[in-house]
Design a protein that fits this description.
Blueprint: H1 15-22, H2 29-35, H3 47-65, H4 72-82, H5 85-94, H6 113-130, H7 135-144
């Protein structure tokens, strides 16, 4: 796996580790690095990708809900069960995503809940961009990260 010039990362996580956790091979390594780099210290970090990822989590949730014929309230409930900062950060810790996030050193070894949730969204956003906007790949990574259940 060829690396482009890699920025200094405090936790020096390997590209292979990120790909192992997500189950996705990134073609653009810089995009993957952006996804795991939290905002801070004068940088927007992964905020742009997190915005894309948030929209995708909503899209996948609604895409699963709509054919069920259930009420809009049920559709909203489906999203809240998987797409909140609380749930995303919990799942991120369980799946080892907290260990791959490059974050502000002032937080010590602990990744704050909102930073972890945003990073989960950013990873989803990065897969979308890297895969040429493949919802199939996004859905697979969401399943691999246990955001979605099979």
């Amino acid at each position: 796996m060829g690396n482009k010039s890699k920025k200094a990362e405090p936790n020096m996580v390997s590209d292979a580790t990120v790909e192992e956790i997500t189950g996705y091979h990134f073609h653009d390594i810089d995009l993957m690095h952006e996804a795991i780099t939290a905002a801070g210290m004068g940088s927007d970090g992964n905020k742009r990708l997190a915005l894309v990822g948030d929209a995708l989590i909503r899209l996948v949730t609604v895409d699963d809900w709509y054919p069920s014929g259930k009420s809009p309230a049920d559709g909203q409930k489906s999203f809240t069960e998987i797409g909140t900062n609380e749930v995303l950060s919990l799942v991120g810790r369980e799946q080892g995503v907290a260990d791959i996030i490059v974050h502000n050193p002032c937080h010590g070894r602990s990744v704050p809940k909102t930073t972890l949730a945003s990073s989960m969204e950013a990873i989803i956003g990065a897969v979308w961009v890297d895969s040429g906007k493949s919802l199939v790949d996004v859905r697979r990574v969401m399943q691999n990260l246990h955001i979605l259940q099979d």
